[in-house]
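Record type: monomer structure entry
Structure origin: computed from sequence
Chain ID: A
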Amino acid sequence: MTQTAPFDYFVVLAEMRTGSNLIEANLNEFDGITCEGEVFNPAFISHQGKEELYGVTLAERDRNPMALLWAIRAQSDLTGFRFFHDHDARVLPTFMQDPRCAKIILTRNPLDSYVSLKIAQATQQWKLGDVKTKRSAQVTFDPVEFEDHVTRLQAFQARILNMLQTSGQTAFYLAYEDANDVAVLNGLAAWLGVTARIEAPSRKLKRQNPEPLEQKLTNPDAVRDGMARLDRFNLSRTPNFEPRRGPMVWGMRACATLPIAYLPMPGAADPGVLEWLEQISGDDALLEDFTAQSWREWLRAHPRRAIFTVLHHPLARAHEVYLRQVVHGQRANVRAFLARVHNVTLPEKDAMDSYDTELHRAGFLAFLRFAAANLNGQTAMSVLPAWASQTKVIEGVMGQAPIHHLLRVEGLARDLPALGRDLGLELPQFVPLAAPRRFTLSAIYDAEIEAAGRAAYGLDYGALGFEDWAG
């Protein structure tokens, strides 16, 4: 780039199914512009199957993502990439605070992007170059899933807006409908400082699902219920100047008539608390899938209440997450990380005969080291609630659901019936449940496992007062 050019490189801030592939294809039609795809996607560099870009390998990028960012900035063409909310967060502050990085923000109606994502997952067709190869599917609209989809989009967009505001920058905004508008695309090129112009958009990609919404869904009537769940204007928020967008409360479980509510700890096995709550609720079903408004209504209906969660030993919880979500679950990105970084390859779910105690110990130790790096922002993957520290989970929910009681799993038989004393209730006994496991923590526990657990979850050990795991 020349010294007079306004930018050295660019980023397209978007999400899956917002038209970012089409924007990339159209940007690459301009002489002097190169868009390299999802260069900070945890699974690949640039595009699926690619493991190297500008001399930086996938492993090198995972160790030092800045090296790839600097390589992009150093290209002679105005070069950029697409960045989604779940890409490597370590580079986000650097390019967002750099005024020499042009920010292009691409948005789409979240209902359209949600349905498009569901169809792509069902058909496994993520791009369409020839309409003759188009795959079609009707999908089911899930109101809770849609609410989570919108919440993630809004949280990332709010963060981006705040970073632009606090650094005194602006961005070029594109809507999905602008992706093939030649006049808008040429205006974007002018804003980027590129003199080249195009006369027509790229012909490489086609819009995948142009049909009306009702033809794409098996239950189009459910959309109205899904929209009703959303507090689009955040009307239920008490005005204050704390950081925007508090936590969602859909994970809470509450008795319909009794003033008792429970926050299941993400990732941990339920020791029978849900069954106990159903028992004390009687004929009334437990309330769940709360919206901000319905949760506030429950709070108003129960001014004198007990809200509790159950704390699990960090090592035991991590072991449960490892077994359920990595060994037997769908965390392919974590499996790939364990294999690439720690040389631990786990068998597929249909080949578990080769999974023995030795591999179990090596795999769990590698997972603890992954968790330590992930929680410290040293990996390209987002921190998920399942393996986030319990301390941070509690801090996150306190804004909308103040927790009155932090109960220990080993003391539930004593503590759960006692919840009723201050409420004037006689609550039944609690009998804990334990799910049998072929591979147990006790079979592999030693000082090295404990040390790795403390390295990953030192915050929980210190803030919540946990000692070494004792079985």
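Annotation 1: Residues 231-471 form one domain.
Annotation 2: The chain has 17 helices and eleven strands.
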